[in-house]
Design a protein that fits this description.
The protein is 33% helix and 23% strand. It has 208 residues and is of the alpha/beta class. It has a 5-stranded parallel sheet, sandwiched between helices. Helix 5 crosses helix 7.
Length: 208
């Protein structure tokens, strides 16, 4: 969990209410944003924690904006099924504890790549073949791909969020570097874990 950065979409008072008044987590783990940060997230944030009403408003947008990091949703038990169906990474039933939040966030920081467990937070990726420190763009790219693993993410959105030209080879070069990083920390990894179809990049079924 070292280096994990969680952005709560609300105030410190909202956070304490969601934990039944017991929550005391603070920086460097937890940061607050009192406006909807759906398209304003700092690329260094690992997880966003969003109250369920705010999440449903965001998901009602057409088209739904791409997630910029995995999203945890907080709310009552009767909203869990709908939130999970909308694609959030996990759901916390209120009231929850700091320990539960950190455990769920840590779970979201791990993923399987061709059957190999990879942990990822901040700029660090670690797998069975070792660990690497990603460049800021490559870390943000991986976070975007993981956050949108169900629907994929378009080249246009990648260019906008990474602040790169949509044409040319800037995006391709960063994808190539990310492939090399993940190849280095895994064992006999096939390059087919990431595919592009009609300008949409998507993690393949080799990632569970």
């Amino acid at each position: 969990m070292t280096g994990m950065r969680i952005l709560f979409a609300g105030s410190a008072a909202d956070y304490r209410n969601a934990t039944g008044g017991e929550g005391c987590l603070q920086a460097p783990f937890l940061f607050f944003c009192t406006v909807d940060a759906g398209d304003q997230l700092n690329s260094d944030v690992d997880i966003q924690l969003v109250p369920y009403r705010q999440y449903f408003v965001r998901m009602a947008d057409t088209p739904v904006p791409p997630a910029t990091c995995p999203i945890l949703v907080s709310g009552p038990s009767n909203a869990m099924a709908e939130a999970l169906a909308c694609g959030c990474a996990d759901y916390l039933v209120e009231p929850w504890s700091d320990d539960e939040l950190l455990a769920r966030a840590g779970r979201c920081a791990c993923f399987a790549l061709a059957g190999q467990e990879i942990s990822f937070h901040g700029l660090q990726v670690r797998g069975p073949g070792g660990e690497k420190i990603l460049g800021p763009d490559e870390a943000y790219l991986l976070r975007l791909l993981l956050a949108n693993r169900r629907s994929g993410i378009s080249r246009q959105h990648l260019a906008s969020l990474l602040r790169l030209p949509e044409g040319g080879r800037a995006i391709d070069m960063r994808i190539s570097r990310l492939r090399r990083y993940l190849q280095a920390i895994s064992r006999n990894l096939s390059p087919g874990w990431l595919r592009s179809r009609r300008g949409v990049y998507c993690l393949t079924s080799s990632i569970d």
